[in-house]
Amino acid sequence: MADQYRIAQPKDYYRQFLEKDVRPDNRGLGEYRATVMNIGCVSTAEGSSLVKIGNTTVMCGIKAEVAEPGVDGKNGYLVPNVELSPLCSANFRPGPPGELAQVLSQNMADLIADSQCVKLENLCVCPGKLVWVLHIDLVCLDYDGNLMDACTLAMMSALKSTSLPVVTVDEESGEIKTDPSSRTLLPVSCCPVSTTLIVFDNKLLLVDPTSEEESLATGAVTVVTEGKNVCSIYKPGGTPLTDKQIRDCIERGFIRGKEARSLIEETLCSVDR
Amino acid sequence: MATSRICVPGQRLNRADDKHIGGKGTYSRNGFIYSSVLGYWEERPTNDNTEILISVHTGETQTVIPSIDDIVTARVTNVNPRFCKCEILSVGTTPLCDVYRGLVRKEDVRATEKDRVEMYRCFRPGDIIIARVLSLGDAQSYILGTAENELGVAIGMSEAGVSMVPVSWCKMQCPKTLNEEFRKVAKVRPEYIQTVHQG
Amino acid sequence: MAGMELLSDQGFRTDGRKPNELRRIRFKKGVFKQADGSAYLEQGNTKVLAAVYGPHEIRGGKGKALHDQLLINCQYSMATFSTQDRKRRPRGDRKSLEMTAHLKQTFNAVILTELYPKVQLDIYVEVLQSDGGNYCASVNAATLALIDAGIPMKDYVIACSGSYIRDTPVVDINNLEESSAGAEIIMAILPRCEQIVFIEMNSRLHEDHLSPVMDQVMTGCKDIFNILNQQVRDELCKKSAQDRIVDSG
């Protein structure tokens, strides 16, 4: 019976819970869902990971290819791509990538560029001749809100586990040789973590929204932190927030950042490489 | 439960003779009753006690689709002088995971004085209505009707955006502005009111 | 494949299996919440995910609706990182479209479509890691997802592949055997009534050899069926035992 009320009047349903500072799934307003991570689950990829935040599941696979560099001669390429297929939610239609998928792909690219976590010159194989192209494919398998955080977490943990084969170029013949037996780990200098909050009823801030909460939200904020630095703040319109509220968001971002980074480290340690 | 025997799709349950008939979750082929879903075996004599009904129940709510004569709950999305469009939210007490489109035509709104119905005085977008499925309709949507006392608007949204209180069979009052608005009000069954107040 | 023996003189295959041995099968039903039914299945190194949505209202072009039965919509896709070389198009290429059509035909034959007129059912299959037998793993995973969703079916559909190497029929072939050996036979069957729903063969095979391979594949299908069926039953058994504890406590 409560289910019917939830479908018919979702906002009222939520208000009754939020009055008592709790959400329908038993979380507090600032509480994250349980986060689970698995690294190195796809052996055909150079680096891979699976991240679950509550029900939201994202799989990341990184494939490396060699290509000719651009005019500067030494910078490699990182190409993130987020895929939201109809497999993960009934709201997505088959066909070319939708708006959300394109926005997320761009967000991921910006995140790498802003945080400088992977330096493009590190992807150089042979200056002027050969560089690495890393295709970072993020596939959403189950969509229950807060994709941004799940994607960043999946991407960073996959990057940290990525190892590239040693490639040598013969000076004279220009022949490319790969040695599959020896691999080097991709240098990742830092690990940005994003934290998403939504605004409910123009005043309450909820951390880590589910898809239902996202559909009721009047605004959203994403804070990306790295160590003690703020990497980016992204607030795509919606309800205006006060200075104090933004500060609260940033503070929450730092706490989450610390938790997430230690989770990545723990998982990396537990997986023998 | 003595009858909790597990059945899987394709499992042969019994001979389909004049004593046994297959119920929900089963199908018949070549004179036998087979299970079509994963669930538990259930045997029950039919009402006239002449046959035994064998069915397989899954223990979870089965996926339902609206069929003729079902009572459905729907949200009004669009009203025009001839009909109003709505999205069906639940069938009986089972919420649907995905909305189905429905249509209430002007002549199906009430049982009497059908020709004097004005759609805008019966439904407004955002209202939650209780209706009966009259037909599976065309390819576009299900045809719904509210021509019964128990059917019509259950929760009306006033112009101020608050849910209104019914004051008569054709009027509702907004608790905020005390404005009265016209609706085809449903005489809501007690159990429905209970839901709304429980949350 | 010079210098590489697909079947050694001792009768072992490249991955150490006997000719009639299946790869290890592991699966989990109901892995996702959004979908009405879902399953994850591993057959050796082939990892497949299947999700079922529906039955729900027809989407995109009402004209597709069938007035007396369910419309089944399939989509087969392979993750870009699932193969050795990166796949540029995860879906929509000819191979995927063919696979989509095959899946649709297979499941049209077993789902009791007449129970749901004018609505649609979606079956999505995603290959996460591919090591041969993609069709077989997809069919098996989708069967489990359909059971999880509670969609009425005539029977399980189980698929298995086979080949003929060095005068020996082999079953459940992997990527290496698929790409280098001669003939490949793929079969999808209803294991209880032993009916063949789908069969595909490519390359050449002497007619005398056909029936031993088919027999071997049939046995493989039944073995897979026994594994899946056993675990599905055990899980429900465990679940109902737990429910009873909750009820009485």
Automatic annotation (TrEMBL), chain A:
The Exoribonuclease phosphorolytic domain is annotated at 31-165, 192-254
Entry GO terms, CC: cytoplasmic exosome (RNase complex); nuclear exosome (RNase complex); nucleolus
Q: Name one GO molecular function term.
A: mRNA 3'-UTR AU-rich region binding
The record's Pfam families line, in alphabetical order, gives: RNase_PH, RNase_PH_C
User: What UniProt keywords apply to this chain's record, in alphabetical order?
Assistant: Cytoplasm, Exosome, Nucleus, RNA-binding, rRNA processing
Gene Ontology BP terms: exonucleolytic trimming to generate mature 3'-end of 5.8S rRNA from tricistronic rRNA transcript (SSU-rRNA, 5.8S rRNA, LSU-rRNA); nuclear mRNA surveillance; nuclear polyadenylation-dependent rRNA catabolic process; rRNA catabolic process; TRAMP-dependent tRNA surveillance pathway; U1 snRNA 3'-end processing; U4 snRNA 3'-end processing; U5 snRNA 3'-end processing
Q: Where in the cell?
A: Cytoplasm; Nucleus, Nucleolus
Alphabetized Gene3D superfamilies for the sequence: GHMP Kinase, N-terminal domain
Chief place where the protein resides: cytoplasm
Annotated family: Belongs to the RNase PH family.
Q: Which protein are we looking at?
A: Ribosomal RNA-processing protein 43
Q: Which organism is it from?
A: Lymnaea stagnalis (Great pond snail)
From TrEMBL, chain B:
Q: Which residues form the Exosome complex component N-terminal domain?
A: 6-41
Q: Which CDD domains match?
A: S1_CSL4
Tell where it localizes. Nucleus, Nucleolus
The domain of life is Eukaryota
Q: Which InterPro entries match?
A: Csl4, EXOSC1_C, Exosome_cplx_N_dom, NA-bd_OB-fold
Q: Does the keyword Calcium apply?
A: no
An example Gene Ontology molecular-function term: RNA binding
Exosome complex component CSL4 C-terminal domain location is: 100-136
One family name in Pfam for this protein: ECR1_N
Question: What keywords are annotated for this sequence in UniProt?
Answer: Cytoplasm, Exosome
Q: Give any Gene Ontology cellular component.
A: nuclear exosome (RNase complex)
An individual GO BP term = RNA processing
Q: Does the keyword Zinc apply?
A: no
Q: What is its main location?
A: nucleus
Q: Which residues cross the membrane?
A: none
PANTHER family in the record, alphabetically?
3'-5' EXORIBONUCLEASE CSL4-RELATED, EXOSOME COMPLEX COMPONENT CSL4
Protein known as: Exosome complex component CSL4
Gene source species: Lymnaea stagnalis
UniProtKB/TrEMBL annotation, chain C:
| Record keyword Mitochondrion present | no
Q: Indicate the segments forming the Exoribonuclease phosphorolytic domain, all copies.
A: 21-152, 155-215
**Pfam families in the cross-refs:** RNase_PH, RNase_PH_C
A biological process (GO) of this protein is: nuclear mRNA surveillance
Q: Where in the cell is it found?
A: Cytoplasm; Nucleus, Nucleolus
Keyword Cytoplasm among UniProt keywords: yes
Q: Which CDD domains match?
A: RNase_PH_RRP41 (cd11370)
Task: One GO cellular component term, please give it.
Answer: nuclear exosome (RNase complex)
MF (Gene Ontology): RNA binding
Task: Cite the entry's keywords alphabetically.
Answer: Cytoplasm, Exosome
> What is known about what this protein does?
Non-catalytic component of the RNA exosome complex which has 3'->5' exoribonuclease activity and participates in a multitude of cellular RNA processing and degradation events.
Quaternary form? Component of the RNA exosome complex.
Similarity section: Belongs to the RNase PH family.
- Protein name, please? Putative exosome complex component RRP41
